Each structure stands twice: as structure tokens, then as C-alpha cells.
Amino acid sequence: MVQTKEKSSTKSYVKSGIIAAVVVVIAILGIWVGTAIRGGDGVSVDSALENVSTNAVTGADLRMAVVRMDAIQNDARVLQDLRKQRESYESRLRDELTAQQKKLEKEKAEIEKSQDVLSREALQRRVVDYQNRVTQLQRDLNERAQSVEESFQKALAEVQSKHLDPIIEGIIAKKNLSLVIDGRFARMGANATELDITDEVVTALDKKVSKVKMATPKGF
Questions:
Q1: Which residues pair with 179 in a beta bridge?
Q2: Which candidate in 3, 15, 118, 198 could, as Cys together with 123 as Cys, close a disulfide (CB 3.0–4.6 Å)?
């Protein structure tokens, strides 16, 4: 029979093995990095600018448009389909997590019941094995969630390079545009007709491609 003090210590040790795993959808953050500009070897500003021409675009020559990338991401069929594919993998991960949690909680209850009949060494071995499997489950789920996000981002890059960029470049050529601005950073007046080309981009993209299959993430 295990001594009372050892029972109390081991019970506390057992309870520390509760799993708290969450499917992690790894977000990708863009970071602007500033570059320090240092002075030259005593060269004046006028000398540094001597090769800069006086030419500049004039209002009559400037033809520009605005494209709202957030609207394209929300409305284009191919991007809607990609999001559904990602959500399907994430749903499978959540279901698996729920099932594994139930199994581990059941085993945890069995370990707590057995602490009065197992030796201290045998009980600790079982607890350590339990905690190792909890840790491994968390690691596996996190790695698979990361693989889902990587596969999704790769598919997005494919859509942009093979389909979206050529469409925007084609519109630029067809409309003879000088500049296209991301509409998320632009403010347009009510009289700015024909400036927003977002709907035209979405229509052309839907016509060109409606589905791009994500590469199967690791572990699926």
C-alpha cells in the first residue's frame, strides 16, 4: 500500500496531466522593415541628384485605376473554394482533437482510480506515459494545422501568379493604364467613374479559373 504522503503527491502529479490543446491556424503576418540610409563620403545633395531627370508624368498622361484586393479575396469563386478546402481540413482536425481529448480524459480518470492499488513507481510511469502522449498529440495537431496553412498559402500564391496577376496586367494593357492602386489604401470621390476595376477583375478571374486544388497537407 502506498503511504498517504506519497498518495497526495502522486495525485497532484496525476492531475497535472490535463490536456488543453487547441487547433492552431497559423496566421501569416507581413512586417515592414525600415532600411537606414547613411550619408555618403561628403558628396553634396546637388551632386548626388545630378543624374536625376526633370521629367515627370503630367495629369493629362496619367491613367490610373483602383482594385480592391479584399473584395477579390471575398468574391472570386476560386478563392471562396480554397477557403472551403482549408476549413474542411481544419474541421477534421477539430473533430480528431475532440475524440482524442475524450480518450485521454477517460484514461486520466482510470489513472486516478488506480493510484491506491499501484505502486508509486508504477503509477508515475503510467502518468509519465500519459503526459508524453498528451504532448505528442498537441505537437502532431499543431504541425498538421501548420501544414494546412502552408498548403493554403501555396495555393493562393499559385492563383495570384498564374491567374490574377496576368488578368490585372491584361487589364492594364487593354485600358492603357499608367498605375493601379490597391483600393484598401485609396479614397475615391463620388465622381471618380470608371476608376474601380475590381468587378472587372473578379469577372475575368471567375471566367479563367473557378477551382485550384490545395496540395494535401501532411498528416491527412
A1: 64
A2: 118
